[in-house]
Design a protein that fits this description.
The complex is a heterodimer. Chain A has helices at residues 30-40, 44-66, 69-85, 96-114, 116-119, 125-128, 136-153, 156-167, 172-179, 183-201, and strands at residues 2-11, 14-22. By secondary structure, chain A is mostly helical. Chain A is elongated, with a radius of gyration of 19 Å. Chain B has a domain at 81-122. Chain B has 5 helices and no strands. In chain B, 65% of the residues lie in helices and 0% in strands. Chain B has helices at residues 13-23, 28-41, 47-79, 90-96, 99-112. The chains are: A mainly alpha, B mainly alpha.
Chain lengths: 209, 122
């Protein structure tokens, strides 16, 4: 993984710079290959290194699908546990990360579908008609709330696709492999998710830095 | 979050950073420890260990299948008309046996009467 700086214009004269790790999805880092090989042989410590390495991205993607921390961590743990149990079926010639992500996305999607009824409540009215105000911190809080609401209005597939594409830097092809759908479907999911999020966040453009 | 070709390979850096920040959680170390605690409680079984777990059941099923097949074959044989060789008329016995048995018995008789195993007279 390499750290990159992303610079984007979010409003008139306002640039948002984000530093984050850029995944190399299609390649297997040699050190990672060693950890995977050791874990395949039953080395729990080596698997622990992999868990530590991928905990962040796995939890974010699970959270994007499930919408809350508690369920997301449950799904992420289940995903890691399934990966551990099935490591003997993993082909070491293939990259580990998409294989792991596919397991996690499936675990999170399954949990989401099982608990869908529980989450299908209306949004709190207090959050629905707020407009940005003059206070910067308040606006930032509102932006986060509005993003949370807008994500909740998307399907879990849209949320997973845009999180992996824009949030985590995966390519359309990698997401297609992880979600087991055609590349065209991923492009469509990302397109519609972006359009919905941009529309929802439009009043806050320029306030978020 | 500027408008651009949303079907293209370019990322929306601002939206991505916002999502990344919004979805990030704290304390990955505790999470990792939780995962490892579960792994320690549920050690992985290899494919052979899983197979070995099923072996007694598989052996029992195979034994039952062999027993059932044996019983079925036995009952099928019992239904066939049997003629005792030492009491019945040899002509009748040969006529009621199947062709393979008839050939075998005929050869034995011929060998006994001065023919060799190939049917040639000694």
């Amino acid at each position: 993984m390499t750290t990159i700086a992303l610079t984007s214009t979010v409003g008139p004269g306002v640039e948002l710079v984000a530093h984050r790790e850029q995944p190399k999805v299609g390649t297997q880092n040699p050190a990672e290959g060693d950890f995977v090989a050791a874990a395949k042989e039953g080395d729990q410590k080596a698997f622990g290194t992999l868990v530590d390495r991928y905990a962040g991205v796995v939890r974010r993607v699970a959270r994007s699908i499930l919408g809350n921390d508690f369920d997301a961590d449950d799904a992420a743990q289940d995903g890691f546990l399934l990966a551990w149990r099935n490591l003997d079926r993993f082909d070491p010639e293939r990259p580990f990360r998409p294989w792991l992500m596919r397991i996690v996305v499936n675990a999170a999607t399954d949990l989401y579908r099982r608990r869908k009824v529980r989450h299908a409540g209306a949004l709190p009215e207090a959050l629905q008609d707020r407009a940005p105000g003059p206070d910067r911190e308040t606006d930032r809080a509102l932006l986060r709330e509005r993003l949370s609401e807008a994500l909740a209005e998307l399907s879990e597939r849209h949320r997973a696709a845009i999180t992996m594409f824009d949030g985590e830097g995966y390519s359309h092809a990698d997401i297609a492999e992880i979600m087991d759908v055609p590349v065209g479907t991923v492009r469509s999911l990302v397109f519609h998710a972006r359009r919905a999020l941009r529309k929802a966040l439009a009043p806050y453009r320029g306030e978020s830095t | 979050m500027t408008e651009r070709n949303s079907f293209g390979p370019e990322r929306d850096g601002a939206l991505g950073a916002l999502l990344h920040e919004h979805l990030s959680t704290t304390d990955d170390a505790s999470f990792t420890e939780g995962v490892m605690a579960r792994i320690r409680r549920e050690p992985r079984e290899s494919s052979w260990e899983v197979l070995a777990g099923w072996a007694p059941l598989g052996m029992a099923a195979a034994g039952l299948l062999a027993l059932a097949t044996g019983l079925w074959l036995g009952s099928a044989r019992a239904d066939r008309p049997m003629v005792a060789a030492d009491t019945a008329d040899p002509v009748e016995w040969l006529s009621t046996s199947d062709p393979v048995t008839t050939e075998f018995v005929l050869t034995a008789v011929l060998v006994g009467d001065g023919f060799d195993g190939n049917g040639a007279q000694r």
